[in-house]
Input
Amino acid sequence: MASTADFKNGMCIEHNNGLYTIVEFQHVKPGKGPAFVRTKLKNVKTGKVVDNTFTSGFKINVARIERRPHQYLYKDDSGYHFMHNETFEQTFLDKKLIERSELLKEGQEVEIVYHADTETALSCQLPPFVTLQVTYTEPGVKGDTATNTMKPATLETGAKVNVPLFIDEGENIKIDTRSGEYSERVK
Output
């Protein structure tokens, strides 16, 4: 059990029969009336952000979550298959638990977030940047670089992103997994 005085950004709590992480909080002491804590909570399963106000000193259950390193193996009809890096146990996840699943490449390292008490997987987090090869893109027109113009490209995982005109087929590029956008060319 913890109280509102123990709140920290990123802390995972049990609230309204669900797991929430604290996105931000603010302790408010009005001139009249009791103090309270205004929070923004993000539902771990759905990703929905809600506002909530707790009275100061309110007791709350802290949920234990663990991040475990896994390696992506393959995808089939039952879901996405992963292997734990230390125990070599295999697990599979549904697509809805993986943000930007189209950027997953076989052999890639990811972190799977588990609820430690129930041993259930909550989400799969890709590294901030991944390097992928361009398998198809239209050739750029020489001299057409006066502005920051982008063109569509297909990556080795089947994902489609917009890249600058100078990127050609066969080149490796770095993709930001948080936004799903082109970051830079990799030599």
Q: What stands out?
A: The radius of gyration is 22 Å. The chain has a mean pLDDT of 89.
